[in-house]
Write a structure and sequence with these properties.
The protein is of the alpha/beta class. It has 15 helices and 13 strands. It has a single domain, classed as Alpha-Beta Barrel (TIM Barrel), CATH 3.20.20. InterPro entries: GH (IPR017853), Glyco_hydro_1 (IPR001360), Glyco_hydro_1_beta-glucosidase (IPR017736). It catalyses: Hydrolysis of terminal, non-reducing beta-D-glucosyl residues with release of beta-D-glucose.
Amino acid sequence: MEHPELPPHLLFGTATAAYQIEGGVHEGGRGPSIWDTYSRTPGRVARGESGDVACDHYHRYPEDIGLLADLGVDLYRFSVAWPRVQPTGAGTPNPEGLDFYDRLVDTVLAAGIEPALTLYHWDLPQALEDTGGWRVRDTAHRFAEYARIVADRLGDRVGRWITLNEPFCTAFVGHAVGRHAPGTREGTPALAAAHHLLLAHGLAVGELRAAGAGDVGITLNPDHLVPATGSAADLAAVERARTLHNRVWLDPLFTGAYPDNEKEVWGDLADHSYRRDGDLDVIGRPLDFVGVNYYRPIKLRDAPHTEPDPAARTAVDIGTEQVAYEGVRHTTMGWPVVPETFTEMLVDLDRRYPGLPPIYITENGSAEEDRPDEDGRVRDTDRISYLHDHLTALGAAIDAGVDVRGYFVWSLLDNFEWAYGYDRRFGLVRVDYDALTRHPKDSYHWYRGLLDAHRARRGADRD
């Protein structure tokens, strides 16, 4: 398939996350995380799988960085495992953990690739969860301490820093839906977790600035929400969902206030006793960029609350129901493939938040069947089509005036896909989970061709 042409300034990369690829959970002084606990709880993860070994990136990272170098990316987004740096989430850092990320960053740089470091991709040290986790304010201060430790060690070589990845998933999928660690179904405590995550972000921004750590941002996953019908009820349902999914993060970060319809969305759950004067000033500290993860749109309609008693509701029980997207292809995640909504989401984001900092698409990709043929080749044409069409949609958003600076495919490797275990494959590179061997798929070679052509245009533009 031909390659879409994107503006020469756009940087390209791939992304991964520590718990999904590293393994080595009992090595190098690493402490347990909430995902170690969650994955060992019967019934939580498909087939009882865990990230204990994952892709064994902890031992095989030179090979994986070699794949990145062969691919020809500008950037590599990875995350640091907090319990590898601070096994209990507080106190003296673990030198073996910092040494690992030292080696990783040096290997990335030696390959001619710029690192983009995510401080938190969902692996909270279990010791902090035992004392309240994100529900309590102290965890935000512990996160700031951890951010400073990592910045003091790596800030001289890492130029892009992401504080949090998808706090929506941590606060609401983890604390209200229960499908991610810590796996609880809560109301006000989940809303408190959302606030403390934002506070942690703001405190960490202050520490990263003080350490001179380079460009600083946060990665969000704003959803493109579509009403099932044009009825007033469905339109109102979408507005409630917009607050849950998007505004509760974007408004404090970029307008200095929480959404004005919180009471309508959450009722008495939104008591906000955990918020303090001055918190919004910390949360809204200026950023150099915002990361955006995007995979699919969501179609919603108005529906009764799952729990009739308002005091017993979870934070996601807001009177909406997801409905099927008909007439389109779906990935193996069950997600509808509607590339034009990528353009619509970015343009809408740009219009709703004037003065938004530059955007990096920090994740975009698809899980597919990916069955190797008799020669071991993975002809993942659906993934290639997905990437082609979403990059074309990204180009349309840039043409419409959205300031996008970079794009990362999720993911370099097949990996541990959270509650799905190893059943969903997002990688450009197939991982044999028994032998731990790597096999580039057709999409890897397609993406490499795109990057070759893009570099040629970039060089011509400079000439």
